[in-house]
Design brief:
This protein is about 25% helix and about 30% strand. The chain is an alpha/beta fold and about 280 residues long. The strands form four sheets. The chain has a six-stranded mixed beta sheet with strand order 5-4-3-2-1-14. A hairpin with a 5-residue loop joins β12 and β13. α1 (about 20-35) runs parallel beside α3 (about 70-80). It is globular. It starts with a strand and ends with a strand.
Length: about 280
């Protein structure tokens, strides 16, 4: 069965200084992609206010879940009967989270708080406490994680085994874990990692990164969509410039990727009698 879905990647840098300007820019970028036919738009990590690990800035710019950013993204999603996935700085009482959401015309339908904080994020964000969500949407079952989470192979595997067909990964890829920026084909190391995990877990992965030299960071761009066979469906995008890209993929490929032949079935061939992945009190 063919199940086409059009995904828009809105790769952009969020300059420091004015959260409102960046919020408006994300909504405008989403609108442009929706106008081109996107059903789902993926924005970067901490697209609002901007990527920072300065505790004072994080505390000053954090907003509640049902705040101006979710309102802006919900409005543009409602205008186009679409979905927006993106990252912002969330305050919940005294705790501040590096958060990603999926919104539709009604508001938040998927809410994720980053489980694996990277480097300086540990000084200003609280560890995520909402697990790994998978939400049913009109285009398919979508999972969420953020950037550095992809370094932990359990994350994609849990989302895949929990039913995700497409995993959206708002990102702010920088050097630090790897010294290399991009290879000859424009892939940063993180993009290669996403491709490998999509192949191993038979899911689509859509990553949108911040880009440019901002806030003392050198963001790598290289946003891309990988299909459930581990092949590039879109990207990698520019390593230095704001760009947008639209791609239509077939989520029916997820089921096809799970069975490569009568005797080659990666999901069914797992030895769950020997090992298992514990998540939420269940063994997957």
């Amino acid at each position: 069965m063919t199940r086409p879905v059009s995904i828009g990647l809105a790769q952009m840098g969020s300059p420091p200084g004015d959260a409102g300007i960046n919020r408006t820019a994300t909504a405008e970028a989403a609108k442009l992609l929706f106008d081109q036919g996107a059903q789902l738009v993926v924005l970067p990590e901490l697209a609002v206010p901007w990527y920072t690990v300065e505790p004072d800035e994080v505390a000053r710019t954090a907003e509640p879940l049902w705040g101006p950013t979710v309102d802006a993204w919900t409005a543009v999603a409602a205008d186009h009967s679409g979905l927006v996935a993106g990252g912002f700085c969330e305050r919940d009482g005294e705790a501040i989270y590096n958060t990603a959401v999926i919104v539709d015309q009604s508001g938040v339908i998927g809410h994720y708080r980053k489980l694996h904080l990277f480097a300086g994020e540990k000084a200003c964000f609280t560890l995520g406490d909402r697990g790994l969500p998978v939400v049913e949407t009109p285009v398919g079952r979508i999972g969420l994680c953020i950037c550095y989470d992809l370094r932990f192979v359990e994350v994609v595997r849990v989302l895949a085994l929990s039913g995700a067909e497409l995993i959206c990964v708002p990102s702010a890829w920088i050097t630090g874990f790897d010294s290399e920026k991009w290879d000859a084909d424009g892939f940063c190391p993180q993009a290669h990692g996403a491709a490998l995990q999509a192949k191993l877990s038979q899911v689509f992965i859509a990553c949108t990164s911040q880009v440019g030299a901002l806030s003392g960071f050198d963001f790598l761009g290289s946003s891309l969509v990988i299909d459930s066979f581990g092949q590039v469906a879109a990207g990698p995008m520019s390593g230095t410039e704001d760009k947008s890209q639209l791609v239509t993929v077939d989520l029916g490929d997820v089921q096809r990727a799970e069975a490569r032949g009568s005797l080659i079935q990666p999901r069914a061939d797992r030895r769950t009698d020997v090992y298992g992945l514990s998540y939420g009190g269940s063994i997957l």
